[in-house]
Amino acid sequence: MNEKIWLSSPHMSGNEQSYVQEAFDTNWVAPLGPNVNGFESDLESYLKEDTYVAALASGTSALHLSLILLGVKHGDEVICQSKTFSASANPIVYQGATPVFVDSEKDTWNMCPIQLEIAIKDRIKKGNKPKAIIAVHLYGMPYKVDEINKIAEEYKIPVLEDSAESLGSRYKGRNCGTFGELSILSFNGNKIITTSGGGALVTKSAELKQKAVFLATQARDNAPHYLHSQIGYNYRMSNIVAGIGRGQMTILDSHVANRRANFEFYKNAFKDISQISFLMEPEGYFSNRWLSCILLDSKSTREGLRLALEKENIESRPLWKPMHQQPVFKDSPSYLNGVSDELFEKGLCLPSGSNLTEIELNRVVSAINTYFAAC
Ligand SMILES: *Cc1c(COP(=O)(O)O)cnc(C)c1O
């Protein structure tokens, strides 16, 4: 059997262990320390736009804290892009609030501004104005930032930007992760950089960052004993994990370049296969191409191809199954136009790691060529 080719696997720079070693040498084996501060300032320098970053245990915990900071409570409604990973929506339920799902458009596969406005108007008419809008830059492709922000401003609803898949992506020259009232990042094992597990909350104010860190470290009031006037969480990033993050930041841009090269490689390799198409970058959009995705001409081609790749020990995966199709969210209101359903049926993510070798990429291409030659 050929060796397994993964969808997206961790890719270390070699610098990580020295930061981790330093943490051990200085006994900073705790959810605070120099690596946490260093990783936060590395991210702030990378993102620019006067951001303040709080390093947390995961992207999911960053989303949860963001909703708390935005004042989302029991009985509230929060709009969320339907085409996403479930972690975008789950924290809404942690707060006792209801997710309201909004479909995608075809240019970026992200939240459709038209459906968004329809949803907002309808929820207001029903007497429950949404408290926040969670928009996602899926697979690294920025959402329609100007269009979404314009609607959000018109109705005065804050945008929570889920940038878990899009560190290193840009919209009109500005970094993803800086567009929301609050934004979140993820450093889980398969993301563009990884700390094994981790995330961050990005804000525009030192005060909000401080509040996030306060809540993430059990909401301890300023007193010699343990005093609490609010419910706290254990969501801070560990100094060991942050050391991995500091090493990863040294190669973020080369990871982006490698992933973009994978996409170009596939695009070029399949240009004569009429059943395959790609999502191109609209003018002004720069995707980190976290995952290289293709669209097939039908659901059966997509599933046939996925199984053919599996037989060759190559991992591929359908695009995210929309949240409005998930059993757990079956009672949530949704505003749909059919786009995310069709993308789910026809879309496939191909192996996309920044560490894929040319031999591995050629194995993927030849397995796909063989499949279509037999069709
Ligand atoms: C990975 C991911 C998250 C969650 O991040 P974790 O660090 O795994 O908790 C949230 N949203 C999206 C879109 C993701 O891809």
UniProtKB/TrEMBL annotation:
Pathway: Bacterial outer membrane biogenesis; LPS O-antigen biosynthesis. Its cofactor is pyridoxal 5'-phosphate. InterPro entries: DegT/StrS_aminotransferase, PyrdxlP-dep_Trfase, PyrdxlP-dep_Trfase_major, PyrdxlP-dep_Trfase_small. The active site is at residue 191. Keywords: Aminotransferase, Pyridoxal phosphate, Transferase. Its EC number is 2.6.1.102. It catalyses: GDP-alpha-D-perosamine + 2-oxoglutarate = GDP-4-dehydro-alpha-D-rhamnose + L-glutamate. GO terms for biological process: polysaccharide biosynthetic process. This is GDP-perosamine synthase.
